[in-house]
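CATEGORY: protein folding

GOAL: derive structure tokens
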Amino acid sequence: MIGPEQLAPLVQEVLALDCPPAYAAYVIDHIGDHGDHGDMFGVCYAAAEAGRAALLTLFPEGAADNCTWSLADVAHRLTDPYQLFAARFLTAHCNGDAPTTVALFRAAEDAGARDRTESVCVLLAYVRSLCRRAEAGPAAPHYGDTRS
């Protein structure tokens, strides 16, 4: 176990918008080699929480009590398993679906070190892209709307 006092700054570094992808992969490998499952899940949870905050900036209506986040409009475009993990993990987290986040994390862990690292790195990259986009403020009303 690495522990929260050492893990928190590492997570902040890899979530930084200017973090090089190779360094993020190195940190995730380090956590995988020296930490435990709880440490790695902590990285995913922290990333998902940052992603949730970015999504709420982009789509403030998502804060409504009856709002459910969905992949319906984009799921068919996600063919990469690591991107699918990232999108599903973030969506489950945003919906407060802890059992699904745990199941997704366990599947990534069970797939092996390489797949786990790739899955977590893609989650981090996905969240960084959302954070970058959120810096511009709320999305235009049509953002993501596929209807004509």
Remarks:
- The CA atoms of residues 71 and 143 lie 14 Å apart.
- The helical segments are 4-15, 21-34, 37-58, 81-94, 98-110, 113-134.
- The first helix runs from residue 4 to 15.
- The chain has six helices and no strands.
